[in-house]
Each structure stands twice: as structure tokens, then as C-alpha cells.
Amino acid sequence: MLLDLSPLALAALLGWSGLGKLRSRPAAALGAGTALARLLGGKGRAGRVLRLVGAVETLLAAVLLAWPTWPYGGLGAAGLGTGFLGYLVLARAVTPESSCGCTSRQAPVTWRAFVRAGLVGLGGLAATSAAVPWWTAVAAQPVPAAAVLAVAAASFAPLSADRDRRWPLRRARIRVQGHLPTIMD
Fold it and tell me: Global pTM?
């Protein structure tokens, strides 16, 4: 069941992240403060690349939702996760204080970004092994499927820097460290 539901969980993560990049601020504002802006030589270019990545994430999410047993959707997500990991290593080496731009917000590159990217890669590999469509798995065993999806959502939520302002202890820690204005923007 875990493998059969992995396309749905991964589609939710990629869709949320991709749509965030597509519908957020203007491209230049989206790329501002990211490591990508420094690597590409400008926030406008970085914003356009982030929009392209958002479009790829959204497309992969749609593929994983519509054709969950098609292995190439999972392979695409695994490749995307691997690319994210490579970018994060480069971003951390070049501009450790910059945002990665991963979820369309301004948050520094931390261990959470690495874990999130790794989960995208592993989730993509898991999705290649889905034997039945996610809707069949949910219909066959709705309560266990809901539990698996709830655990997946609970695993992804703390890895998102976007939600820091909603976690009281993180908000206090961020305020003490002086990073709240960056994350709140």
C-alpha cells in the first residue's frame, strides 16, 4: 500500500511546491535572495528558472495523479529530487546564507531542504513500483490509506520552512536568532 500511495503523496508535495512558484510574486522578486540568483547572475533569471522548475513540478504532480502506475512519472520525480540535492550542495557551498527558493519562500538552505529533496527522490523511486493506481488502493482499504497519507503529510509539514511562522516554538527560535523578517516576507 505504501508504494501504491506514494504517487499521491508525492504529487501533493510537488503540486504544492510547483504551484507556489508559479503563482507567487513577480519573477524577479521570486528569485531575489536565492542562491540561484548568484549562480545565474541575476534575480530575474533566477525567478524565470524557478518558474520553470515550478512548471516541471506541477507537470510531474499531474502525471503522478493521473497515471500513478506509469514508471516514468516516478523516474522524473526521482531525477528532480536528485537535481534538487545537487543544487542544494552547490547553493550551500557558494552562498550558505541565501535561500534555496525550494518552496517559493525566502528561507535559508538547511538540513530540512536536503531531507525534503531526498524524500522527493526516494518518493519518485517508490512511485515507480506502484502496482495499482492510488485510487484503487484507497478504495480497497480507506482507513489504512488515510493513515498512511496522514503520516506522509505529517512528515512533510515540519520540513517546510514556509510553515515556520505557524509553529510557535520555531517562531520563537527564529525571532531570537533574528531571521523572522526574512521568513515572513
Answer: 0.82
